[in-house]
Amino acid sequence: MKSVRELRDLAWQRIKILLRLADNTIRSDEALARRYVELAFRIAAKARLRLPRSLKRRYCRRCKVPLVPGLTARVRIKGGEDGRLIVTCLRCGYVRRYPLRKRST
């Protein structure tokens, strides 16, 4: 039987492969790309892996489609005192707002 560490390493490898495939196939077959993302997230949950923030932000939480600006996502920057990055999924309409850090000049 494999150790927990070996199983998690194997899960990471499969997750990376599936997400790479999803990014490559989004322009040709959106349903297949969505399926790849669903499988990757399911593997991460089963192996109890925490995906990095950068990976989680690249996919819609609701419909699991890869977010590509102009194709499947609309990206806006909202100014003001507390700037925000607003990402809207063009497939399901889900909106995510991320705070922007202020630049030190």
Q: Strand-and-helix sequence, N→C? A: HHHEEE
Number of domains: 1
User: What is the fold named in CATH at topology level?
Assistant: Single alpha-helices involved in coiled-coils or other helix-helix interfaces
The CATH architecture would be Up-down Bundle
What can be said about the biggest beta sheet? 3 strands, antiparallel
Identify low-pLDDT runs.
Answer: none
Structural class: alpha+beta
CATH H level, superfamily name: Immunoglobulin FC, subunit C
Q: In brief, what are we looking at here?
A:
The chain has 105 residues and is α+β, with helices and mostly antiparallel strands. Helix content is 41%, strand content 16%.
Give an account of the 3D structure.
It is a single chain. By secondary structure, the protein is α+β, with helices and mostly antiparallel strands. The chain has one domain: Up-down Bundle (Single alpha-helices involved in coiled-coils or other helix-helix interfaces), CATH 1.20.5. Helices cover about 40% and strands about 15% of the residues. It has three helices and three strands; from the N terminus they run H-H-H-E-E-E. The chain has helices spanning about 5-25, 30-45, 55; strands at about 75-80, 85-90, 95-100. It has a three-stranded antiparallel sheet, with no helix packed on it. A hairpin with a 5-residue loop joins strand 2 (about 85-90) and strand 3. It is globular and about 55 Å long.
Write the layout of secondary structure elements.
Elements: H1 4-25, H2 30-46, H3 53-56, E1 73-78, E2 84-89, E3 95-99
Antiparallel strand pairs: 1-2, 2-3
Helix pairs in contact: 1-2
